[in-house]
Amino acid sequence: MGKIILRDTLGEDPSHNLAEFIGKTGITATRLRPYGEAEFGDVRMEVSSGGPLIEQGTKIRGVTIRESTLIVAPCNQ
């Protein structure tokens, strides 16, 4: 089973933080309205679309971090 990230870091390991997901692509695991879950490889985390609805199964990329949350956008944008 993959990991779930709820904060900006995973435990005490500073190499795993939200900044490493900026520019990376993933798939929405749930509908984002605007919050939901996405998978980046074997890592599953809570993300936000920053406003617009993004359907489950949409290819997304990390674009920025706001208030300890990874903001994502569909890859076609």
Tags for this model:
5-stranded mixed β-barrel, mainly beta, 8 strands, 77 residues, globular
Structure description:
This protein has 77 residues and is mainly β. The protein has one domain: OB fold (Dihydrolipoamide Acetyltransferase, E2P) (Beta Barrel). Helix content is 0%, strand content 52%. It has a 5-stranded mixed β-barrel. A two-stranded antiparallel ribbon has the order 2-3. The chain is globular, with a radius of gyration of 11 Å. About 10% of the residues have low confidence.
Shape: globular
CA(first)-CA(last) distance: 30 Å
Helix content: under 10%
- Unreliable stretches: 8-15
Strand-residue fraction? over 45%
The largest pleated sheet is described as: 5 strands, mixed, barrel
Task: State the CATH superfamily name.
Answer: Nucleic acid-binding proteins
CATH topology: OB fold (Dihydrolipoamide Acetyltransferase, E2P)
